[in-house]
Amino acid sequence: QPLPVESGGGLVQPGESLRLSCVTSTSTFSYFAMGWFRQAPGRERDVVATINKRGDGTYYADSVRGRFTISRDNAKKTVYLQMDSLEPEDTAVYYCAAKSGGSTSYVPSNVAEYDYWGQGTQVTVSS
Length: 127
Hints:
Blueprint: E1 5-7, E2 10-12, E3 18-23, E4 33-39, E5 46-51, E6 58-60, E7 68-73, E8 78-83, E9 92-99, E10 116-117, E11 121-125
Parallel strand pairs: 2-11
Antiparallel strand pairs: 1-3, 3-8, 4-5, 4-9, 5-6, 7-8, 9-10, 9-11
């Protein structure tokens, strides 16, 4: 079982950038589609960006498309989320998750599809 561990969160000003990383413990990392999600206080957990097993298919929420980039390095068992032009509305706890099963080209975009979750990392965007 992959045990995702997120890092890279912090406090930044609007317009700045952050890069989140998520490393997993599994030796079969390439068997899992991966995703980044976020949850703000009082709100449901929402999808931010997801990537298929091969790393050649991605999905982005409308609110982050063009500003965030998801990528993965299967050799390092790590998935990244590059966040540029951050806005106060991006403030949330960001979670990394892994999904087992499915084809190598499938890009799962629903929170409920993911099986294994990290503990989250706080991102705060404030002036």
